[in-house]
Specification:
The chain is an all-alpha fold. The protein contains ten helices and no strands. The protein folds into two domains: 1-23 and 146-267, Four Helix Bundle (Hemerythrin (Met), subunit A); 28-142. The chain is globular.
Length: 267
């Protein structure tokens, strides 16, 4: 990824996609959601985003930027829960309830009902029962948010993001052997990026617009999912192959660069 693209892209890894097209919401959308998270990573990611929501709401009435951060974290929790639900099992009902609870938080923030969101957020956790009688069938999560909101987490914290771009690029540019601490960072980050890639695929544009082709969007979104899943699994190994992991991180970076050359926005 060139320095020029980094400066001009508001965030990394497909951010521009959500701001260029009127994105589509196809009827077959549930097929985009895939169960990929190990149990421990699922719990870590849910807890992390729940904490983001609680800490943000504790600071007082959110401004427009902070509302985007809140909606992003709520949407991500909903997607973590839904994709985990797709595994089936005895906790599918509980995961559906957690998904629906997170969607309620998202809706409350969108409507400016921050007190309601604050009450609901107190219940958010990987094992929360959430909404009663939730249906254990996948829902069109992409209809509850916009891709620019999902991509906001790549932005710097000063822009109400979660600094994922900065952290990811630091790993890509790291020289020498990756440390155990860095591998612990890579695993949840790449799984998180995989879920973001699922959102990107689900929010593909309905039509081509000049050189911006729907097929390219889908191809890059799917490639992002494949590469991030491979990287997450490689980094999770008892003895990770350092070269293999670095190669995958660089391929993810190259995927972003290719995408931004077509779908980036000018800043």
């Amino acid at each position: 990824m060139t320095s020029r693209i980094r400066r001009r892209a508001a965030s990394a890894l497909l951010l521009g996609l959500g701001l260029i097209f009127v994105t589509g919401q196809s009827e077959g959308a549930p097929e985009y959601w895939k169960a990929v998270l190990p149990e421990n990573v699922f719990a870590e990611l849910v807890n992390r985003d729940a904490q983001v929501i609680r800490e943000t709401l504790a600071k007082g009435t959110p401004d427009k930027k902070m509302a985007v951060r809140l909606r992003c974290s709520a949407a991500m929790i909903a997607s973590y829960a839904q994709t985990q639900m797709l595994k089936g099992g005895s906790n599918a009902q509980q995961l559906a309830g957690l998904r629906d609870l997170a969607l309620k938080v998202n809706a409350a923030v969108k409507d400016g009902k921050f007190d309601d969101a604050k009450k609901l957020t107190g219940e958010l956790s990987p094992t929360a029962k959430g909404e009663a009688n939730a249906k254990t069938t996948p829902v069109d999560l992409q209809k509850e948010t916009e891709l620019d909101i999902i991509m906001n987490q790549f932005k710097a914290e000063r822009s109400a993001g979660l600094d994922i771009e900065k952290k990811f690029l630091a790993l890509v540019k790291h020289r020498g052997k990756l440390s155990p601490e860095q591998y612990k960072e890579i695993v949840p980050m790449t799984y998180q990026m995989n879920i973001i890639g699922q959102y990107a695929e689900a929010l593909a544009p309905e039509r081509d617009e000049g050189p911006k082709k729907r097929a390219d969007w889908v191809r890059w979104a799917q490639e992002m999912q494949r590469l991030t899943l491979e990287a997450a699994k490689a980094a999770s190994a008892a003895k990770p192959d350092d070269k293999a992991v670095k190669d995958l991180l660089n391929k993810i970076d190259a995927n972003c660069t290719s995408c931004h050359k077509v779908f980036r926005i000018d800043q």
